[in-house]
Structures are given as C-alpha cells and as structure tokens.
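Table 4 source record.
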Amino acid sequence: MKNATDLGLSDIPNDRSSHTTITPRGAGIGFGGAFFLSNFIFNFSFFIENGLVFLSIFLVFLIGILDDHKDASPKAKFYVIMVATLLVFFDDIAIYSLGSFFGYEISLWYLSLPFTIFALAGFTNALNLIDGLDGLATSVSIIILSSFLYIGYVNQDELIITITSSIIVGLVAFLFFNWNPASIFMGDSGSLFIGFIISLVAVISTQYIHPITVLYLGAIPILDTVVVMVRRIKKGLSPFSPDKTHIHHILLRFFSKKVKKTVLFIILIQILFSLVGVMLALNSDKLSSGISSFIALIAFIGITIFFYMIFTGMQKRQKLIEKLSNRKKKNKK
C-alpha cells in the first residue's frame, strides 16, 4: 500500500469505477505470494508432487501481476490461461463429461481439452468482471471456495482441501483491507489468480459431483457474465465491450449507491446458491441416476432468464427515473 505508486500499482478512477480516489491495487501479490510461499515451506512434498498444478496457478498469477503493472492484453491473458490449462490437462485434470441425464452420460471425448480451456478461461474472466465493488469479489470467492472446501473434505481430496483452505485464509485477512471503504484493491493479480483457482478446483470436484452442481456453486460470477453478455449482444454490441451494466452496478443504483448494502445483498444470494449447490453435491448419486440432473439444469436456466428479466427491467426503470430527474432539473433552470 505504501509503495503502490512507485511500483506502478495504482488504480485511477474512470467512468466505470465505483470509487473516486486513486487507490493502491495489486493486493493479489500479497495473498497470492503467501499462498505459494506457505505451501512451499510447510507442505513441500505435496507442493512438488502437484508441481504442474502449482505451476499452472503461478503462470496465471504472473500475468495478473503484469496486467496490474502494465495492462496485459486480453489475448495475452487468454494464451496464458490456455497454457496453464494444458499443464493441468497433462496431470489428468480436465472435464471429460457433462454428467448423466436420464441415466445416459454425455461424454466429451476429443472435445475434453477445448471445453476445459473454455470453462477455465470463462470462469476466470467471470470472477474478474464482478470485481467492481469494495469487498465483493473477495466475499463471493470466500463463499464459493468454502463450498468446494467442504466437498473436498467430504471426499477426502487433499488437493482441493489444501488449495482452498490456503487461499481462504489469505482472502479473509485481505477482506479487512478491502471492505468498504477499501484501502487497497486485489487487482488482476488477485481476481485472475482466484478465478483460475476456483475453476480449477471445480474441475477437480467433478469427479465427485455432477457438473450441473458447479453452476450453483459459482452462480453469481456465471449469472452476471451470461446476463451481461446476452444484453450486449441483443444491443448489437460486442459481448466483451466494457460498460456499467453488471449486476452489481444495477443493484448499486437501486440501493442508492450504498456499497455495503449492495455487497451484502449479493453475498446473501451467493450463500443461497451455494447451499443449494452443496445439497446437490451431497445427492450426486440421485443426480446421475434419475431425471434430477435435468431438472437442476432447467432450474438454473430458468433462474438465469429470471435474472435477465429482473435486472433488465431494473436498468430500464433506473434510466427512466434519471431522465425524469434531468427534465425536472432543466425545468427548474
């Protein structure tokens, strides 16, 4: 925080920012560095045994640091995530199936690698996109990671337990500095790093849970990305064009620009989704054997459509209120 300006790690507000003052960023260097250092020192044999996994995470961590310092291009970030995915693919970590529906398994066969790259890159970017309010990405990540930690604990998966518990501790400490009003931001060194870790443990967990369950466990980043991209495409814009139409932007205006209320509301939504996800995870056998998996998928699609309708309606209402307010101001003048 003290040396952010000298290190070129300052976040300068723009028209899409929710903050108004220059704020230090790049806190991911702190909790990311702690993640690698603690595992290297106190869990060395495990660190070496899972070297490809830690190397893949480290590559994403590095491109995040570069992005915080010099703004890496989207292509560069995607290529790094692709290489990181290839590394874990060699360690047999990939999405081989979309799960069973009506008793029939949908195997990906030769599409396993490209689909895994798409999933990891997609969610990593999704978490990066919700990092728009003080404490939001941090809090949502803690909830999601805690859900996967529980799944890892139930199935005694040491890799999931180690990765999730290591980063949760760092994020809890960071939240003291990132809660509104934030004295430092995680930056891309944090959001890309956490996003890749969540997507990675989600892929590992698919050997224990139905893939549909992952949609519920990572609901907020996934729903936000889908809803925003659909709205942009509908307007004839690029799905990757920057704007202030994310769920947290709309809710922030709804809550009269009160950041804490907005963040707490989104946290509550993610907790509810995570509870449903954990319940589905504990009943994975039923999801695989019956029509429950199809119902769970249809339910999530229905929720996505509901979110789209609600937030599109809220945005239109807010624009109408702003127009009427501007007219009143002009009439007074």
